[in-house]
Amino acid sequence: MVVRTGLLTVLRGVILAGAVVLGGCSVYSVPGGEPAPVESPTDYTPGNVESPSTPSAPDRPVAPEPNDSNAYGSLLSRASAATDRGDYEQALALLERAQRIDPDSAEIYLHLAATYTAKGDGTLAKATAERGLLYCHGQSQCDALRSYTR
Amino acid sequence: MSGVHSQPMTRTHRPILKIFVSLSVVAVLLLVYLDARITATFIDKMWELPAKVYARPLELFAGAKIAPDDLAYELEILGYRKVTSARRPGEVSRAGNRFDIYTRGFAFADEREPARGVNLTFNGKRVGSLLSAGKNVDLMRLDPVQIGGIYPQHGEDRLLVRLDEVPETLVGGLLATEDQRFYKHLGFSITGIARAALSNARSGQVVAGGSTITQQLVKNYYLTPERTITRKLTEVVMAVLLELHYSKEQILESYLNEVYLGQDGPRAIHGFALAARHYFDTPLEQLGLHQQALLVGMIKGPSLYNPLRNPERARQRRDLVLGLMVEQRVINEEHAVIAKAMPLGLNGNRLVRNSFPAFLDLVRRQLRLEYRDEDLTTLGLSIFTSFDPILQRQLERSTTEVLNQIDSAAELESATVVTRFDTGEVAALVGGRKVRYAGFNRALDARRPAGSLIKPAIYLAALEQPEKYSLATVLADTKVSVTGPGGQLWEPRNFDRKEHGDVLLHTALSRSYNLATARLGMELGLDNVVAMLRRLGVDGPIPEVPALTLGAGEYSPMAMAAMYQAIAAGGFRMPLRSIRDIVDAEGDTLHRYALAYDRTVSLQAVHLLHYALREVVREGTGKGVYRYLGENFAVAGKTGTTNDGRDSWFAGFSGDLLAVSWVGRDDNGATRLTGSTGALKVWAHFMSRSAQRSLGYRMPDKIAPQWIDDQSGYLTGEGCPNSRMLPFIVGSEPGQRSSCTAGKKSSITDWFQSLFGGDK
């Protein structure tokens, strides 16, 4: 999960390259492929990828932003520990708190889906993973979520 | 000898003995009864504790998106004191974008957030750094704002405190003022009673109390306020019983929690801990000497010595208490002089409690589905909600500002529901133009036709049948008449009273064409439309009549919020939640309202609908939102207008927030508004200031974009006449192709092109 920032850099590179190579063609997600860039002109969360040609919004910070996952990382590890000892309610409470901090983190969706599965709630695990697919980045993360949707 | 006299003796003395015996029995029974009353209630279960309702706690971490002024507002309504150097819990000092906060800490259900000093700097509208004792803090929560309570009929409210948490000087001051012989007497004071009796005899009435603290406690807790000799006797007896059963410390602690110290509207302030919060917005253990003396002085007459209403009288009384404290050697002369020189030290902050009536109303209704009133008003529950005071403040400002601008005559009303659609939590709510007024809650209780706000449900029902419909399906926007129930002829018209002929499905929705929509709805079948509304989470009656396709029926803004919540979340129905957790008086979680959703609509169909709702604000009836929002900030939404502009609606979402706004008249009279001249403005004003994330675009599996000819609906090439890019569920693309395969590419990028990634 720590590789997220690295992954992001790679992803950004891929999209940059894609934009250059493909010119006017659209870049869109094919099943199992790289996701389409997320349009987020006034936003700069690490979970989102900027389009290279989007003009800068005036209030965008210049310096690299701290990653939200630093903030909720401890919540995720505490949630995992709670799941390991079978305390699913505690785990879910921690994960929901993490999700409020970063609502479009596919990583948190993945944790939630895993916890629902461990708890034996397959229906909710599936629904959660399906929502998470709207936010996933990279094949391994998307595939991990997809595995809960079957 | 006794035998000789026994006969007459019995004859004369028996009745007296009888009377004596029966009186004794009565007295004993009475004692037993009083004793039982005391032991049954004292210490345990002594008080009914109202439920406390809290806002969401503010999460702080480096990178958190919050403006410095919003943090300042949160701290202000939390009652943090502005100081030059924050050294004690509940203090803050601010220098521009740097905040030094000494947090109060809070026992949350899952963990205790410690009280600590933190240094926070901002980088624009984000937290730049967060340090405590020189070390980075990854994540912390401020204490949550208490936004209300759920009080019993009598309105008593209190915060319990343990004796060892009460400052010694306060206890000393209390005894010096109210009961100097407390540790020596047995519950009552002969001299006190004698003195009182004397003055009562002089005045011919029962006026003076002369009560010990034990008597006062008995009087306040067990007895009615009338002043009679019997009641006074009962009081003394019960005081003695109390002293026999319980220690001085237990009695003192109960007194400190019971004593009445003023009124706040319908809420009665009981106990020193709550009074400290109420008058000084400071925890009891942190009160200054001058504040302690002020509270002690108020016992004699909470309204007479109310420092808010009678500051001078309260000050004199305070100084008198300080004098008594010196006399009884609780404090020394020097301390008293300093305390007397102090101002009253009252809380200058706005009281936010119960100033969000619409949201509290929602919380109460959700609570009452599962809890009895009695439990809510007695068990001391803590209710943690999703209320966001910062969003609420902006929503109130936007409502007031826009309504004043469009309706200076103040005839219009308004209501808005704001949710965070990722979690389905209601974050802010306005139930009327007078936002502080706890009257008719239009957000929950208004029942209005929805107009075109309902249309997405019809289009969604169509798009769920990709073998029959796509965004490029040709619909006829031509005159239609339908015979409704009872043989009535229904002939809808377009807003511009024109027919638009053949139009593509996405255009019919984004331009809100009524004729095309009515035809589509009838084609799908009304049962299909009703079923879709149900799947999107609309409860309550839905009339299965042709006019339903244009929003006939009675819907609250909340019902529309439920529907748009499901759409915004990508086709997942979620119950709109206002409560996160309920924690009991011991701090254990009683109930966690867990996140739960259920996919009820095809992900792909909702995806196509999102495209059309984006088009509404880029090209259609909702274009006005970009007079408020930045050009690059993506949102999606829908306008709604009913006949003669009786209702003006707008519903829409960014990447983080969903809001549904309504503007209209309570008497259902006509206005000159449409959805875009009324509710849209409230919505966009609010969103432009509160939404933080642009609406992201992610194509789910089995979706692919195509260039189509926007006139014919045929496949075409980029740059060809009328070309537009539309997403399709794979396999639902138009079968026909225009003669043009490629044209001159425009140098202007359309919004939909950037959507699919090809920016240039």
How would you describe this structure to a colleague?
The complex is a heterodimer of chains A (150) and B (760). Chain A has 150 residues and is mainly α. Helix content of chain A is 55%, strand content 0%. Chain A contains six helices and no strands. In chain A, helix 3 (88-101) runs antiparallel to helix 4 (106-119). By secondary structure, chain B is of the alpha+beta class. Chain B has 23 helices and 31 strands. In chain B, the strands form ten sheets. A six-stranded mixed β-sheet of chain B has the order 3-4-5-8-9-10, covered by helices on one side. Chain B has a five-stranded mixed β-sheet with strand order 12-1-16-24-25. Chains A and B meet through helix 1, helix 2, helix 3 and helix 5 of A and strand 26, strand 30 and helix 23 of B.
Approximate shape of chain A:
globular
Distance between the termini of chain A: 23 Å
Mean pLDDT of chain A: 69
Rg of Cα set of chain B: 35 Å
* Oligomeric state of this protein: heterodimer
| Structural class by SSE content of chain A | mainly alpha
Q: Count the beta strands of chain A.
A: 0
Element-level helix/strand string of chain A: HHHHHH
Relative helix content of chain A: 55-70%
Spatial sequence of strands, sheet with the most strands of chain B = 3-4-5-8-9-10
Q: Which band does the percent of strand residues of chain A land in?
A: under 5%
Shape descriptor of chain B: elongated
Kindly state the number of beta strands of chain B.
31
- Low-pLDDT windows of residues of chain A: 1-65
Find the biggest chain interface. A-B, 63 and 60 residues
> Please, how many helices of chain B?
23
Radius of gyration of chain A: 17 Å
Q: What's the main sheet of chain A like? A: none
Query: Overall pLDDT of chain B, averaged?
Result: 90
